[in-house]
Amino acid sequence: MAYVQRKIPFVGTPDTNPETRPFFDAAAEGKLVLPQCVQTKKFIWYPRGISPFTLGPIEWKEVSGKGKIYTYSVMERANPPYCIAYVELAEGPKMMTNIVDVDFKDVKIGMDVKLKFIKAEGDGPAMPFFTPA
């Protein structure tokens, strides 16, 4: 049976605090920014205020929003069904997200995807999702 996600299920509102505020402020403008370790130049997911590689400083940088599906799972018993995936961004890190606007039977490992922000219902922030490129 083929499923296409029609409604995005959100569980709660993500915590926006001073450490993650740059991420959510950029998301509200339709931009994906990630912390980058000043010393190693590696991008980091999940947004945080210090580098997990060096425990040193980070800089917030806008990234392309392009990636490939690293792995995924379709939750068919959920109502509505949804597809959760790890997407490997072009800049390196893997982020857990949802794949949207696609028939789930067409989702494949290695599929090229691009960023799509979707605003949470109510007063929740815009969140990054991915759709086929």
What does this protein look like?
With 133 residues, this protein is mainly beta. The chain has a single domain, classed as OB fold (Dihydrolipoamide Acetyltransferase, E2P). Helices cover 6% and strands 37% of the residues. The protein is built from 1 helix and 7 strands; from the N terminus they run H-E-E-E-E-E-E-E. The chain has one helix at residues 21-28; strands spanning 33-37, 58-62, 66-75, 82-89, 94-99, 112-119, 126-132. The strands form 2 sheets. Strands 5-4-3-6-7 form a 5-stranded antiparallel sheet. It has a two-stranded antiparallel ribbon with strand order 1-2. The longest helix is centred in the first third of the chain and has 8 residues, at 21-28.
The assigned structural class equals: mainly beta
Q: How is the largest sheet built, in terms of strand order? A: 5-4-3-6-7
Strand content: 35-45%
CATH class: Mainly Beta
Q: What percent of residues adopt helix (DSSP H or I)? A: under 10%
Radius of gyration: 15 Å
Which CATH architecture? Beta Barrel
Topology as a string of helices (H) and strands (E): HEEEEEEE
Q: Total strand count, please?
A: 7
